[in-house]
Amino acid sequence: MAGMTLTEKIIAGHSGNGRVSPGMTVWVTADLLMTHDVCGPGTIGILKKEIGEHARVWDPDRVVIIPDHFIFTGDADARRNLDTLRGFVKEQGIRHFYDAGTDRYSGVCHVTLAERGHLRPGEILFGTDSHTCTAGALGLFATGIGNTDAAFVMATGKLWLRVPETMRFVLEGTARPRVTAKDIVLSLIGGMGVDGAAYRTMEFCGPVIDRMGIAERMTLCNMTVEAGAKSGIIAADGTTQAFLKGRGVAASVAVGGDPDARYHSERRVDVTALKPQVACPHSPDNVRDAEECRGIKVDRCYIGSCTGGKIEDFVMACEILDGRRVAVETCCVPATAQVARELQTRTVGGRTLGAILTAAGATIGPPSCAACLGGPPDTFGRLNRGEVCISTTNRNFPGRMGAPDSKVFLASPYTVAASAVEGRITDPGRFSG
Amino acid sequence: MEQAITARVYVLGDDVDTDQIIPARHLAISLDDAAERARYGGLALSGVPLEKAGLPGGNRPFSDTISSRSPYAIIVAGKNFGCGSSREHAPVALAEAGLRAVVARSYARIFYRNAIDGGYFPPLESEEDLTGWFATGDEAVLDLGAAALRNITKNRECALREPGAAGEIIRAGGLFEYARGRGLVEKRR
Question: Which value does ipTM take for this structure?
Fold first, then answer.
């Protein structure tokens, strides 16, 4: 009998089954449920409707509420939704609440979960956001769910799952300078299509992963949902343990797949020849080499989101922007308050990232999801007038960042920064170190 | 769940994502207040580019913005319907417009779960791509018992896939009802 993959082992361990295999439908216990301001209120509404006004969450310490979507807006409905979360947190005695307008406010939920030590390898995280799969970078089974499923988890601590097949990607070789995890994942999505991993999990391993830091692993896992995957995952290793230790999370038992595990497929991907990638409008799988898009004029550059708004993303952008000026409006949105603070302390070439961005003529907005998903019309960086934008975010479906006639190109922080300097899509390779 | 649905069909292509089903700027509207929730019906599919809104010709809005209801109760779509975000506002908006079923070649998994677990409408899978077999406005009968969709206008019948394990939740009317029937959550008071 074949062994189990990492994902199958995590699900088996949470389902009371000694072993599970792909296609089985099982009930699992959740370790953590995350929700935010866009889906939290609806989730709470379903919990109360289905269980009653007296409903209690199964474990208030396993519920994390992170407002991040519509924070810096005058939209009255958005403010009401924040009040709904506040009332629920108080009523239920939930401790892990990063409330807007307070010192606790953090910003983008997926980056917050990692930063604030909520994630542990081998655990199961459900979140009311499709990019919950980001947490797979720390060795969790983490997946996005809707309001009804989240309300069910709140009520019972359980959820049904169909055990996904695992697609294994062994990343080999050495990426060229200015080629990042974003380029790797865009290239994979371009090859597979936006449903190429539908219902499956994408597991990454190999020497490229062994050398990759947590931030870049998060970028890789974050965009697995753009290939339709249920989750993305990387087995915890020394890099993971060091990251966790830095956030006060006790070292956990190492979990990995069995040597005789059975995979849906195993693909060896040599990243050595990979060039900077761009996903063209209007789909994340419409991927080309950046140099093929060279010369396309842009009106806006955007650096931010769970995908491309981490401190490491701004370090990359600043390696290009240091000593240069942007030619078009460039909006920077640090994912979290901690990233915003670090912009003032982290340096490239002896200057802080904040100083570099400001000197380059970029604008820095407050931490949140901001224009990644458009949002209310007064959202910082939103494409309100049919602009062409190159962005470090994750989706470029029609109207994703605002106006229906806007166009979004997705790329790495290097490529976005290089394009900002030129005012046209630019392969960052020409800005060598 | 009804056994047969006779309705006019609305046709969409591949990879219709949740931003097209319900653009993000509307997501702060309450899902719990009945009057606000009804507004989602008028916004359903408002992000679909005009040339793709109601194939093959396009330019046919799905719902009436005044009544917030749609004259189409069945959607026929291509592959990967509902890809993108986890927003349950997407199936809610379609259901509020009066939608009673989607027949697509395939679904993105979160949308599929949301439609089933929320008990909004059955997301059914066709054995082959049906978008070329239907034009927006065609009349069709969806026979859930026989797992078939018949185009009355064009007199053609197409087979649908059995939903498998999720079928039990569809028949129960959603995850909470399914779980109540098995004693997994308490009975509604």
Answer: 0.97
